[in-house]
Prior knowledge:
The protein is an alpha/beta fold. It is built from 3 helices and 4 strands.
Amino acid sequence: TPAAPSAHPARADSPHASPAGVPPAPSLGGAHHKAAPPGLLGLPTCLGGIECLLYDMAESPVRRSLERILAAFGGRVAYFMGDGVTHVVSERAWDREFDDARIANPALHFVRPSWIQACGKAKALVPTAGHEFQPN
């Protein structure tokens, strides 16, 4: 028996219609699979293994762009200080809380947003030198 027609067939002039003779893209087979957002496929994962705490930047106009750069290049945003955090990113001066974090994790880097922006521009992991901040 022939398959039942789709309840919502794509119109020929629809941007979702397949060109004549080209089969539609295969389905991933379930609602739990999500396609990668456009633009992420094929980008280098130069920030893989990098987890940044965007410290006191909830209202910062650059926060969203930093999140996008991290996501696009394989990095992650941490929402609290934890063992996986590799970099603390802040626009502000040194905070006393950073002293405790540095004692708990001496390998932690304290950088300005310009470091993430430089990585995104270079599409590579760039040195933190010139983007770090220290205690006053």
